[in-house]
Design a protein that fits this description.
The protein has 151 residues and is of the alpha+beta class. Helices cover 36% and strands 34% of the residues.
Length: 151
């Protein structure tokens, strides 16, 4: 798969329809960073009239997972990937357009290269932060990903 925002958004529609219906959309993707946006709407709100935490989780996980998928795809190696842990913290009500960003492409590249070389499990913690339109942090998610090259 070519990793462009439009192709990834189509992938969401086909493979992760709940994220697509909730309004999660890939905005940009490079080797080092991924940006996903989601707007608070009626369909993705909690009873307190802000963005439901699970929708924030879908958007933030996408930023980490797509960077990992893109790096794996570049290697042409068969690599298993699995979320093995999650930690989230919330600092402000998520209202309006929320932007999640992960800036850890270099860390991912090193872990992928290491598992290809050793064939052993590599565990890496990737962080995605969510910001509102005033650039105030609303949440931080840390995902523990386990990856291993298959022989």
């Amino acid at each position: 798969m070519k990793f462009t925002p439009n192709k990834i958004n189509f992938f969401l529609l086909i493979k992760l329809p709940s994220a697509y219906i909730a309004g999660v959309r890939m905005k940009s993707l490079t080797e080092k960073e991924a940006t996903v946006k989601v707007r608070h709407r009626w369909i993705n709100q909690n009873p307190y009239k802000s963005l439901y935490w699970a929708v924030q989780g879908m958007a933030s996980e996408l930023t980490t997972g797509i960077l990992l998928m893109k790096q794996i795809d570049k290697t042409n190696a068969k690599i298993s990937m699995l979320v093995t842990g999650l930690k989230g913290s919330f600092s402000k009500k998520a209202k309006g357009k929320i932007t999640f960003i992960c800036l850890e492409g270099d860390k991912i590249k090193q872990a992928v290269e290491k598992t290809i070389k050793t064939g052993e499990w590599e565990v890496l913690t990737l962080t995605s932060e969510g910001f509102n339109e005033a650039n105030e942090k609303v949440s931080t998610f840390e995902y523990e990903w386990s990856i291993r090259a298959r022989k």
